[in-house]
Design a protein that fits this description.
Layout lengths: L1 E7 L14 E2 L2 E2 H11 L4 E6 L3 H11 L5 E5 L8 H12 L6 E6 L7 H14 L3 E6 L2 E2 L3 E4 L3 H6 L6 H7 L5 E4 L12 H7 L3
Parallel strand pairs: 1-4, 1-6, 4-5, 7-10
Antiparallel strand pairs: 2-3, 6-9, 7-8, 7-9
Helix pairs in contact: 1-2
C-alpha cells in the first residue's frame, strides 16, 4: 500500500484567514486536495492537522464518507515546521502496512491527478525509494519516500528541513519530469489565491 501525508497544520499567517477552508470550486481547498489524491488511486490518505483543527476535522469527516481519508493532529504545530508534521504522520504510518508515502501540501489545490499518478507509478516501476517531481529542474510536491528511509526522517532534528533530507540524497533521487508548474505552486497570500482560484 502507498499512503499519502497531506500537510495541513499551518496557521495561514500570510493569508490572514484559514486558507484550507477557502472556497475552491464547489468545495474547499483541503477537500479538493483530498479528492485529487483519492482519484489518483491513493488508498490511504492521512491529513496532518494543526490550526483550525475542528473545522478541518469536520471536512475530513465529510470526505471520509467517500474517500479513504483520516487525520492526526500535530500537537507541536505552533512551534514545529513542515518537518514536525511529516514526522507526526510517519510515526502514525509506521503502525500500518504502507510501503511508501507521498508527501503533499494541503494548500496546493493546483495539484493535478496526473502528477500524483506519475510519482506513484515511477516508484512502482523503479522501486527507487525517493521519487520527486520536477518542473524545469525545480523540485515540487508531492514527493515520495519509501519506508526504508522513514527512520532517517524521524531522527532529524527540529532545526533541519525536508529540503536538507532531499539534498542529502540528491544523487539517489529519481526525478519525474512534470510538464506543469502546478507542482511548485501553493497558496500563501491573498494574491496567490485570487490568481489561482477557479473562476
Amino acid at each position: 500500500m502507498i499512503s499519502a501525508i497531506i500537510l495541513a497544520a499551518g496557521q495561514s499567517r500570510r493569508m490572514g484567514r484559514p486558507k484550507l477552508l477557502l472556497p475552491w470550486g464547489n468545495v474547499t481547498v483541503i477537500e479538493h486536495v483530498i479528492h485529487v489524491f483519492a482519484v489518483s488511486g491513493i488508498a490511504d490518505i492521512l491529513v496532518i492537522t494543526g490550526g483550525v483543527q475542528e473545522q478541518i476535522q469536520e471536512l475530513i469527516l465529510k470526505c471520509s464518507q467517500s474517500y479513504p481519508v483520516h487525520s492526526v493532529h500535530n500537537k507541536d504545530y505552533e512551534n514545529g515546521e513542515m518537518l514536525s508534521s511529516i514526522q507526526c504522520g510517519l510515526r502514525y504510518l509506521t503502525k500500518k502496512a504502507s510501503r511508501a508515502v507521498l508527501i503533499g501540501l494541503g494548500d496546493q489545490p493546483q495539484v493535478q491527478e496526473r502528477s500524483v499518478r506519475s510519482v506513484r507509478d515511477a516508484f512502482l516501476q523503479t522501486r527507487i525509494p525517493l521519487v520527486v517531481p520536477s518542473y524545469q529542474l525545480r523540485r515540487g510536491h508531492p514527493w515520495l519516500v519509501a519506508r526504508p528511509l522513514w527512520t532517517e526522517l524521524l531522527k532529524m532534528s527540529p532545526i533541519q528541513t525536508p529540503r536538507d533530507f532531499l539534498t542529502a540524497h540528491a544523487e539517489n533521487i529519481h526525478y519525474v519530469d512534470i510538464a506543469s508548474p502546478s507542482i511548485l505552486s501553493d497558496l500563501d497570500t491573498p494574491e496567490d489565491y485570487n490568481m489561482a482560484r477557479p473562476q
